[in-house]
């Protein structure tokens, strides 16, 4: 999961969030997230990180025709913090390139009040693009990513005044 704030055309200030490193336990707050009555430090920290950004880029694999449980848990921890944030998707998987996972995510992000960016980077058989232990995207992925970032920046500029 990545979150970003654009500082000038073509540039973003990025806060990369690796859900493994974030280490959120299975939802353990006693109150519903809509109340923002958090009792755990990890939730307070997660809330502050999401609140601080203008847009979200979710990088997600596909698991069993859906998205990962860790991503669902991270989304479910919060409510108002997601409101009116643009959300873009970079998905990967086998033949479907993770698109079934993104389809399952669309309902969740919509319920959280996020606004989907039109462009999406979809990477089929992503392991084929790993060269010398580094991801090496094709020209197609790079071009679509540029469009995705441009759309995300435009939506962030438009939606930021509406964020909670």
Q: How would you characterize the overall build of this protein?
A:
It is a single chain. The protein is of the alpha/beta class. It has a single domain (2-162), classed as Rossmann fold (3-Layer(aba) Sandwich), CATH 3.40.50. Helix content is 35%, strand content 26%. It is built from 5 helices and 7 strands; from the N terminus they run E-E-H-H-E-H-E-H-E-E-E-H. The protein has a 5-stranded mixed β-sheet, sandwiched between helices. Strands 6-7 form a two-stranded antiparallel ribbon. The protein is globular, with a radius of gyration of 16 Å. The two termini are 21 Å apart.
Total strand count, please? 7
- Between the first and last Cα atoms, what is the distance in angstroms? 21 Å
The strands making up the biggest β-sheet line up spatially as 2-1-3-4-5
**The number of domains:** 1
Q: What is the 3D shape?
A: globular
Largest sheet geometry: 5 strands, mixed
The portion of residues assigned to helices is 25-40%
How many H/I helices? 5
Task: Tell me the β content.
Answer: 25-35%
Mean pLDDT: 91
Q: Please tell me the CATH architecture by its name.
A: 3-Layer(aba) Sandwich
CATH superfamily: Flavodoxin domain
- Low-confidence segments, given as residue ranges, are 1-9
| SSE string | EEHHEHEHEEEH
- The CATH C-level name is Alpha Beta
Task: Please name the CATH topology.
Answer: Rossmann fold
Structural class: alpha/beta
Provide the gyration radius in Å: 16 Å
